[in-house]
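assembly run, all chains below
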Amino acid sequence: MEHITKAIQGIPLNHYILLSAIIFSIGVIGVLIRRNAIVIFMSVELMLNAVNLLLTAFSAYSGDAAGQVFVFFIMALAAAEVAIGLAIIVMIYRNTNSIDINVLNRLKW
Amino acid sequence: MNTLITITVLALVVLYLGLFKAKTLLLPVTIGGLLVALTNALLQWNQNNQPVFKGMMQYDNYAVAFSALAISSTILILLLSKNYFEKISEHVAEYYTIILFSLAGIVVMVSYHNLSMLFIGIEIMSVSLYILAGIKKNDFRSNEAALKYFLMGAFSTGFLLFGIALIYGSVFSFDLEVIKSYVSLNPTKISPLFYSGILLMLVGLLFKVGAAPFHFWTPDVYDGSPTIITAYMSTVVKTAGFAAFLRLFWFCFAPLQPFWMPVILIITIVTLFVGNITALYQQSFKRMLAYSSISHAGYMLFAIVALGGNSGYGIFIYALAYSAATIIAFATLMLLQNQTGSDSFDSFNGLAKRNPFLAFVLTISMLSLAGIPLTAGFIGKFVMFSNALSQYHIWLVVLAVVNAVIGIFYYLRVVVAMYFKPIDRSEVPVPAYFKIVLLVSLAVTIAVGVYPALVTNLI
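ok done. output:
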């Protein structure tokens, strides 16, 4: 465990922040421009994982375990969201035979 | 803490009742259990509770007040659910359980003392709501509402989490006390990460409470969800969102007000105008209520713009008034949907002749939402506006008054339909459960409106 922390600390903290910010932005852009519900869903997971990475890096740098515990909470949430989200997508697919979010236009104005 | 435990255990008990096919027991057990939880919450009043579970939660007066409000509103809404879920499917117990789980999340949200509990509370509530929005499995509108709510909710969670991570990166703790001392001890040396963290958390929280420009999911989700779930979302969930929002900003970020206040100020103004002007054009009563909930979110943001000693009280009384009036509106809408199958304004035509009581109660609720004196809504707006004026946000109050006038127009539209558009219609049957809910909400609306000292300066 010791050498892992050392290896993490070998890279400057700013690099982790930058990497997480880039992954997070990719996730945000994916949610905004993709039309397929599952791809949007995967982009959301990307956002959550960027946060996980950032928390782990901060945690390793400060020697405070709280950040890593938080990562477990996020993972548990991501699993719960996968369960609910896929169920909802299956429900939509059964009714419309499509998972393109452009079919979601019954509710307007 | 007992409140949280009671609600969680109750949810499991209800699930087992469903397993053993005790369908008639479901509602009485749920209501009884919630009354126990409510008593447990009220017993904590003024106990000067310190943070528990290693500083994870603090059940102070603020938390007591908001969880009592959330539990009472849930009781009223569940009373409306008699014979409602049965029409949707066989698995009634699950619906009660999921509502109770989301209520447990709400109790966590209003009493957190650590950012991880804020996150867990919001997610317990939201994940339950994603399911509840889609319980009408074969109704396409309900499906659409569930998917939209789910995608937007998960998206906003991402922002909230990134904000929390950045704040953790500058403070190296999730504890509100530590964050507070970080902010107040060296206000000049706050890391830029912390500022970006505040902004990202702001985006996440504004998504959850449905403030413009992050409101676009609100009307669709409220419109598509089953009406009783919409009632739950627009009262209990909205209140809890604001309680969590205010708790964070009041406790931790208050010294940085010059930094985030202009952002929230602009968002408040945009929210008021978007909510009110779009509500004018609605043909459906349910969708009008959805936009009205956006505009009320704007009024509630006043408490955060003019952050001060009165903010908690302001949000509490506003949420109380808004919840009571909205529950009446949704109860009436459910009765009319049963009769006419539509939720347009036209289905209210001539209601006053056959159902004078129902029409009267709905009129009071609309007046309260519009903020006419002698109703609770007026007191709510009065407290909010006087808070804002005390901090010299004069233009904000002027714009808000303009919006309140626009609001009167569309709220009174339904009153006009009920009293002045006579058509032949049969009487809408009002079951006893509905009468109880309508009377309680009416009593709250009028009592707080006439004698606001009842709830003045509670928090």
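The CA atoms of residues 77 and 83 of chain A lie 10 Å apart.

The mean pLDDT of chain A is 89.

not gonna interpret more than that til we talk
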